[in-house]
DNA sequence: GCACTATCTTTGGTTGAGCC
DNA sequence: GGCTCAACCAAAGATAGTGC
C-alpha cells in the first residue's frame, strides 16, 4: 500500500517491508531494492539461475519473472517504489499528474535493466553491507515516522546515495590499490577524507597514488573525490528540496560556503541557479 | 536564517633529485 | 622503472562578514 503523506495530504508511491519473505516479489507497478540480511537462496530471474548469498542487494521490477527455488534461514528488507517516484516535479506543476520530461534521478532505473552483463544481483562486502544496513534502517524509520514535511526529500536523498553506490559496485570489480581507494571514496565520501587516508589505505605515497589515479581516471585522488561529491550534490539539488547546508553536509563538505565555491567553480553557476535551471531544462525538453 | 563573497591559513599537487 | 623525499606554489579549507 502506498504511503499517505500526513504533512501534505498526498499519496507517496513507496513501501518499506522490514521482514521480506520473497513470496510476493516482484510487487505490481513497483521497483524493489531487496537487502538480504541473513541466509542464502537459489532463484530464477527471467529464466536465469542465480544464487544469492548474504550480504547482497537484488534489484527487481514489476514484470520480472522471479521464482525462489530454495532458501536457507533468509532474512531481508525491501524498499519498493513506483518509477514515477524518481521524477522531480516543480512546485508550480505539483498538481499536474502528467507532466512530461520531468527530471529523474540519474542512476535509478538503469540498475533494474536485466541483461547478460547484469542480472539484478549485486554482492556486497561487510564494509559496504554495514552502510546499506544503516541506509535501509533509516529508510524504514523515515517511512514509518514521517517526522516532518521533508521526509520524502530525505528518502530521495538516501535513494540517490544508494543508487550511486550500487552503480559503482556494478561497474567495478577489480582489487588494485586504486580500486581500494575508489571503494573507500564511494563509501565514505560523506565524511572528511584526507589524502593521508588514501595513502595509508593503498600503501602508496602521495605522488604514486596520484600518478595511478591520473593514469586510470585522468584526475588526482582528491579531484576525483571532489567531482564525485559534486555529482551527488547536483542530483540532490535537482531531486530534493534540501537546503544547501544540508546538501553540503550530506556530501562531505564541512562548510556550505566551501561547497558553493566548488560548485560554482565546476559549473559556472551557483547551486540555487543550477537547481532552478536543471528543472527548467528537463521540463522544456 | 539562508545564500553568497572576501580573506587568511592549511593542505595538497607538481617537479626535480636521488635511492633501490 | 618504480618509488621516496623535499621544496615551492596553487588550491582547498576555515572563518568572518554582507545582503536579502
UniProtKB/TrEMBL annotation:
InterPro entries hit by this protein: Homeodomain-like_sf, HTH_AraC, HTH_AraC-typ_CS, Tscrpt_reg_AraC-type_HTH
SUPFAM superfamilies named among the record's database cross-references: Homeodomain-like
PROSITE patterns: HTH_ARAC_FAMILY_1, HTH_ARAC_FAMILY_2
A Pfam family assignment: HTH_18
MF-aspect GO terms: DNA-binding transcription factor activity; sequence-specific DNA binding
Domain HTH araC/xylS-type: from-to ranges: 179-277
Name the record gives this protein: AraC family transcriptional regulator
Keyword set, alphabetical order: DNA-binding, Transcription, Transcription regulation
Amino acid at each position: 500500500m502506498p504511503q499517505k503523506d500526513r504533512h501534505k495530504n498526498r499519496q507517496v508511491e513507496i513501501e518499506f517491508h522490514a521482514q521480506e519473505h520473497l513470496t510476493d516479489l516482484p510487487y505490481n507497478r513497483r521497483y524493489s531494492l531487496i537487502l538480504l540480511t541473513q541466509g542464502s537462496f537459489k532463484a530464477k530471474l527471467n529464466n536465469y539461475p542465480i544464487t544469492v548469498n548474504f550480504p547482497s542487494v537484488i534489484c527487481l521490477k514489476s514484470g520480472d519473472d522471479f521464482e525462489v527455488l530454495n532458501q536457507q534461514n533468509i532474512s531481508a528488507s525491501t524498499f519498493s517504489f513506483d518509477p514515477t517516484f524518481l521524477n522531480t516535479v516543480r512546485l508550480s506543476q505539483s498538481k499536474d499528474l502528467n507532466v512530461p520530461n520531468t527530471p529523474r534521478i540519474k542512476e535509478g532505473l538503469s540498475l533494474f535493466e536485466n541483461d547478460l552483463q547484469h542480472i539484478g544481483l549485486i554482492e556486497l562486502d561487510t564494509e559496504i553491507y554495514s552502510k546499506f544496513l544503516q541506509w535501509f534502517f533509516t529508510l524504514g524509520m523515515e517511512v514509518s515516522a514521517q517526522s516532518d514535511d521533508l521526509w520524502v526529500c530525505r528518502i530521495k536523498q538516501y535513494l540517490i546515495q544508494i543508487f550511486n553506490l550500487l552503480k559503482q559496485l556494478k561497474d567495478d570489480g577489480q582489487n588494485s590499490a586504486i580500486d581500494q581507494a575508489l571503494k573507500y571514496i564511494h563509501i565514505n565520501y560523506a565524511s572528511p577524507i584526507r589524502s593521508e587516508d588514501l595513502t595509508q589505505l593503498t600503501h602508496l605515497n602521495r605522488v604514486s597514488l596520484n600518478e595511478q589515479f591520473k593514469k586510470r581516471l585522468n584526475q588526482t585522488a582528491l579531484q576525483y573525490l571532489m567531482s564525485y561529491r559534486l555529482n551527488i550534490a547536483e542530483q540532490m539539488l535537482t531531486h530534493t528540496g534540501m537546503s544547501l547546508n544540508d546538501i553540503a553536509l550530506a556530501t562531505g563538505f564541512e562548510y556550505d560556503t566551501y561547497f558553493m565555491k566548488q560548485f560554482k567553480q565546476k559549473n559556472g553557476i551557483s547551486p540555487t541557479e543550477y537547481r532552478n535551471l536543471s528543472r527548467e531544462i528537463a521540463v522544456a525538453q
